[in-house]
Amino acid sequence: MNAIDQLIKKIKETNNPTVIGLDPRYEMLPNCIKQKYSGSIEKICEGILEYNKTLIDHVQDIIPAVKPQMAFYEAFGIEGMKCFQETCKYAKEKGMIVIVDAKRGDIGSTAESYSNAYIGKTKVEDKLYGLDYIDFITVNAYFGTDCVKPFIEDCKKYGKGIFILVKTSNPSSGELQDLKLENGKTIYETMGNLVEKWGEDLIGEYGYSSIAAVVGATYPEQLQTLRAQMPHSFFLIPGYGAQRGQSQRRCFRV
Predict the structure, then answer these.
(1) CB within 8 A of 144, min separation 6: which ones?
(2) Which residues are marked as active site?
(3) HSE-up (13 A, CA, CB side) for residue 22
(4) pLDDT band at 1 (very low <50, low <70, confident <90, very high)
(5) How many domains does the chain have?
(6) What does DSSP say about strands 127-129 and 122-124: parallel, antiparallel, or unpaired?
(7) Given pLDDT bands bounded at 50, 70 and 90, which one contains residue 36?
(8) What 3-state class would DSSP assign to 34?
């Protein structure tokens, strides 16, 4: 099934368009976890995994998707990567959609390897190896089309999806993304048009493409502009909570 159709079906089942972020920071772990797991990176990562599983157990029937942020797992080295893998596997086993927030992007064989690592397959001798429990990955496509092409090919081949950065939620995003080009369009609008074009061959039954977009809730006017010009692009909208983004209900057209 088309990846975005799977996500929309889960949203409809749960009647909830939100995603839970799993971004482990040691200082924010509950004291009971810190007390139970301490003394080494290995033990701390065991505690993070238990915490993640507990969260998943409590939200699996009310929230459609999880979004682990890779940086927080990479910070704990190889043990953190093992924790990331087991977290994704567990969420998938519980029926949740897994969106990996890694913001990968490069060109040529490097872009291909990034895509193979998360949503595609890596061929070794006569066998293919991949992470079947990951549904989406976030992508930084400001390298252009040759950055995105390997990800799109893997989306088609393996029924996966990507969320491409269009207008990010951070305060300084406008330093580059809001600059206007000679045609009067901003850089973020230009990226939005590219995302809409890149996704034309992967539109599912709900009218949205598995080549989707990241658009921050902290910029509601820009969000509305992009919603109008990207009718087939599903939006992942960060910026709630600590970033104080406001809800734009018209952007959740599912």
Answers:
(1) none
(2) 103
(3) 30
(4) confident
(5) 2
(6) antiparallel
(7) very high
(8) helix
Residue 230 DSSP label? -
Query: Could you give the CA distance from residue 91 to residue 18 in angstroms, rounded to a whole number?
Result: 15
Query: Does residue 113 share a domain with residue 85?
Result: no
Q: Please tell me the distance from the alpha carbon of residue 207 to that of residue 151, in angstroms, as a whole number.
A: 20
First to last CA, the chain: 17
- Please tell me the predicted confidence (pLDDT) of residue 17: 96
- Coarse DSSP helix, strand, coil percentages of the chain, rounded to the nearest 5 percent: 50, 20, 35
DSSP SS3 for 76: coil
Nearest to 87 by CA among 102, 98, 95, 76: 98
Structural contact between residues 99 and 53, judged by C-beta atoms closer than 8 angstroms:
no
Domain holding 176, by residue range, is 105-247
Q: How far is CA 161 from CA 3, 126, 240, in A?
A: 6, 26, 23
Answer yes or no: do 61 and 156 share one domain: no
